[in-house]
Amino acid sequence: MLRDRVVVVTGAGRGIGREIALLCAQEGAAVVVNDFGGSAEGEGGDTNPARDVVNEIVAAGGKAVANLASVSDPAGATSIIEDAVKHFGRIDAVVNNAGILRDRIFHKMSEVDWRAVLETNLYGPFLVSKAAAPYFKEQKSGSFVHFSSASGLIGNFGQANYNSAKMGIVGLSNSIALDMERFGVRSNCIAPFAWSRLTATIPAETDAEKLRVERLKTMTAAKIAPLVVCLASDSAHCVTGQIFAVRKNEIFLFSVPRPIRSMHRSDGWTAETVASDLIPAFRSSFHPLERSADVFCWDPV
After folding, report:
1. Among 125, 132, 137, which residue's Cα sits nearest to residue 82?
2. What average pLDDT does the segment 112-123 reach?
3. Is 135 a catalytic residue?
4. Which pTM value belongs to this model?
């Protein structure tokens, strides 16, 4: 499905990114395997993960090159796209998968932890996508696949930085889809459920949390890759601005915020009438506070 295409996958040295890079290569793409080699919290640098994936692709007869830049660095992000053009002559799809976690309860979260996660998980996709946009515009084609999260779309404890970034990704993707539709460029999001270095940090103290972790362990990273490959290919030429989730053998399409109730007063509103009339009328339609585990509470099969 990706024969003669060139795909960039960020954070491709391990986990979900690795599986995406391998399947893209298997489907015929030349792949730029980007990985900074950092820890789950984004610290340090190890060149081995990216190079190992490249070696695996080449050994199987595919084409790949390693890029070790950090997506949060503007020059590094640009170098990822430049490597695709330099080595393979073009760029056809960008998979913004790189991400880090620095989980803290909100009132204990430092500005350093807030900024680090936003810079990698939201600024990074912006910078890499921005570097690819001129090529996509000129060739009148291209696909962005961004990674959101059910924790961001629904909610989770102790992840104000991560959840904000992952909700921001939805806004970024939608804006790219709207701004670049005229050039034949598509942009979509995926919220993955998969066991990885990042999900391994989920607390497992209560029985419910332990059950959630056991569910996650059955959801392999390889389950995410087929949807990514399809969205990166011409087979999904009509799909843009959408939010998907993959949970083992299930694929979901998420809704987006739209008005669900309205109330009109011909003489306008006061704070008092909002309290006395609007809130009681709307209360039955208020959504509850939920975590992603509350919504996706059944065993995946």
Report:
1. 132
2. 97
3. no
4. 0.92
